[in-house]
Design goal:
The protein is an alpha+beta fold. The protein has eleven helices and five strands; from the N terminus they run H-H-E-E-E-E-E-H-H-H-H-H-H-H-H-H. The protein has two domains: about 200 residues, no CATH class; about 70 residues. A hairpin with a 4-residue loop joins strand 2 and strand 3.
Length: about 280
């Protein structure tokens, strides 16, 4: 039986076909900047790469948390910056539109080719989006229906109201009970990170980088699967130790879809990129 690939995981999560096609390289709306994820950049298990982008080791893909009530989102993973992760879009429609607008920025003028690119990633009203972007640039996002009531944290400066999502944000509750829903690589804003470490009543144990492996097995003995998962996705691991711990968690969880994700992650040669994160 062959090992599952990222495209299999994306189908399991029931994302639109265009996202799967992006991961396979069969559609490439930004060929100069996007490359199918080859696996040479190591990544934590909570992240499912869709493609590589930019000149530094980076992925754009899906952040999927298990054993908690967090929704899947599209995110950027910056391996070259110590594995910081930030929310790129809240849903597939936003993901498609932001990708299309990136193409607008490259081309600089409207063409029927842009319409075909937009259609290939599920966007139908390409011309109207282009016209808004041409007039307002990034300020067009609050005017787009897909962003009006639920925008990604990375665009919050463009909106008048508070951010409504559940990605880590400087406006969120920093009580211990809420911080337990996050892993350390999600606390990526420097000022917010400082506030969390200075003002939180108590931090989840996995926010401290030392002794992550020991901490994982203590939480496993307590059957705290959510805590185990957040620990696995927080800084302070060697990939070789994370492999062993993830395999143990997969056996403990006894969940087919989670096992599928673990098998896919374990099949990647993370150690060829770095010793850990």
């Amino acid at each position: 039986m062959s090992m599952p690939e990222n495209s299999d995981l994306l189908r399991m999560l029931k994302v639109p076909d265009f996202v799967v096609q992006l991961s396979e390289g069969s559609i490439r709306p930004l060929p100069e900047f996007l490359r199918p994820a080859t696996g040479w950049i190591a990544y934590p298990p909570c992240f499912i790469p869709v493609f590589e982008y930019g000149s530094e080791p980076s992925y754009r893909g899906i952040l999927k948390h298990w054993f908690c009530d967090r929704k899947i989102i599209y995110a950027n993973l910056l391996a070259y910056m110590g594995y910081y992760i930030y929310e790129y879009s809240r849903n597939s429609d936003q993901f498609a539109i932001r990708t299309l607008i990136q193409r607008f920025e490259i081309d600089g003028e409207y063409s029927e080719f842009l319409t075909r690119i937009g259609n290939s990633i599920g966007v139908r009203n390409v011309r109207s989006i282009y016209d808004l972007w041409e007039r307002y640039e990034d300020d067009c996002y609050p005017m787009l229906e897909s962003f009006k009531n639920d925008w990604p944290e990375s665009l919050k400066s463009l909106f008048q109201e508070e951010y409504h999502g559940d990605f880590a944000s400087d406006s969120m509750d920093i009580s211990n009970s809420n911080l337990k829903r996050y892993c350390s690589i999600e606390i990526c804003d420097t000022e917010f990170e400082s506030r969390v470490f200075e003002e939180a009543d108590s931090l989840p144990p996995w926010f401290k980088e030392e002794s992550q492996e020991k901490r994982f097995y203590e939480l496993l003995n307590e059957s705290d699967l959510s805590g185990c998962w957040m620990t696995l996705n927080s800084r302070g691991w060697l990939w070789k130790d994370l492999r062993k711990a993830l395999s143990v968690l997969a056996e403990k969880a006894n969940n087919h879809n989670f096992h599928m994700l673990c098998d896919c992650w374990l099949s990647q040669d993370h150690e060829s990129f770095s010793e850990g994160f």
